[in-house]
Amino acid sequence: MYFMFVIFMSNEIKIGGVTEHFNLPWNLAVEQNKFQQAGVDLTWKFFPGGTGVMTEALHTGELDLAILLTEGFISAAAKGLQAKIVKEYITSPLGWGIFTGNKSQYYSVYNRQPKKYAISKLGSGSHLMAMIHAEQRGEKIGVEDLIEVKSIDGAMDSLTQNESQIFYWEKHTTKPFVENGTVRMIGEFSAPWSSFLIVASDAALKTKRAAISKVLEVINTESENFVESQHSVTLLMERFKMSERDTRTWLNSTVWSADYSVRLQGLENAKQALVKIGSVSADLDVTDLCDTIMTLT
């Protein structure tokens, strides 16, 4: 008697991303049924909590794909997340703003007074970038210095109540809270690696590789269209309440990847920064983080 084992290849894809302007090409593609037209049943879910929450969703199977901060994914993978990079998404570095409450006594992150850091979740970008920047300043952040706030709204409440004094978040997303007087931006920080990666769980790669490939083809095209469109500025202003000046500045400084190349030096830069704060081991090989079938490394 012979048995045939067949791996069922599904066209259903569950993907998550932050509620930020970087992901507008995805949102537009969903609204215009571009994935459906490509034969993919794609479900998009916003994650206000960011990378730390999405790595957990990949682990549990709630998501097949996620758009993650580079440093957050490397840290999660080093801790056992079974997932691979299938594409760089935003290749330009992320512009982090450093924020404090409007009535805070802090006017610089370099102030050596004791301070608490608001983070969305352990392992999130707001956590890791605070740690990386502190290490560069010659400071140490302990677990007791961290206040988990879950989202940007939670951070605003924490800073206003002076429960925490410092918060790292993408500066354009946070600017409305500066303009309405909730917080002050007291500094900026960026790191020499790509902002966002598209990451697939190992489980999804086993059963949904063809659908994932179609998803990436669609977003490559949609990202190019978004950059070239005359309507992108208006859409960003309407949906994210950005000024025309900020929108044009951000668009001119943001680079979407339209191919499958992954820059290993950028991953290595992020790894080395994470090694210094004790988040990953120095023997981690960043090439092992990439899906070699889909990516060009």
Structural features, described:
The model is unreliable at 1-8 (pLDDT under 50). This protein is an alpha/beta fold. The protein is 40% helix and 19% strand. Helix 4 (70-78) crosses helix 12 (264-276) and helix 10 crosses helix 11.
Sum up the structure in keywords.
alpha/beta, D-Maltodextrin-Binding Protein, domain 2, five-stranded mixed beta sheet, globular, disordered N terminus
Topology at a glance:
Layout: E1 12-17, H1 24-31, H2 34-37, E2 41-46, H3 51-60, E3 65-69, H4 70-78, E4 83-90, E5 96-101, E6 117-119, H5 125-137, E7 146-148, H6 152-160, E8 166-170, H7 171-179, E9 183-189, E10 196-201, H8 202-207, H9 209-228, H10 232-240, H11 244-253, H12 264-276
Parallel strand pairs: 1-2, 1-3, 6-7, 6-8
Antiparallel strand pairs: 3-10, 4-10, 5-8, 5-9
Helix pairs in contact: 1-9, 4-12, 10-11
Give a concise summary:
This protein is 40% helix and 19% strand. It has twelve helices and ten strands.
Instruction: Report the order of strands and helices.
Output: EHHEHEHEEEHEHEHEEHHHHH
Beta content: 15-25%
**Spatial ordering of strands, largest sheet:** 2-1-3-10-4
What is the overall pLDDT average?
94
Give the count of helical stretches: 12
Radius of gyration over C-alpha positions, nearest whole angstrom: 19 Å
Give the helix level as a range of percent: 40-55%
- What's the architecture of the largest domain, going by CATH? 3-Layer(aba) Sandwich
User: How many structural domains in the coordinates?
Assistant: 2
In whole angstroms, the N-to-C terminal distance is 44 Å
The CATH class name of the largest domain reads: Alpha Beta
By secondary-structure content and strand pairing, the structural class works out as alpha/beta
Q: Which word captures the global form?
A: globular
Name the CATH superfamily assignment of the largest domain: Periplasmic binding protein-like II
CATH fold naming of the largest domain: D-Maltodextrin-Binding Protein, domain 2
**Beta strand count:** 10
- The low-confidence parts are 1-8
Largest sheet: 5 strands, mixed
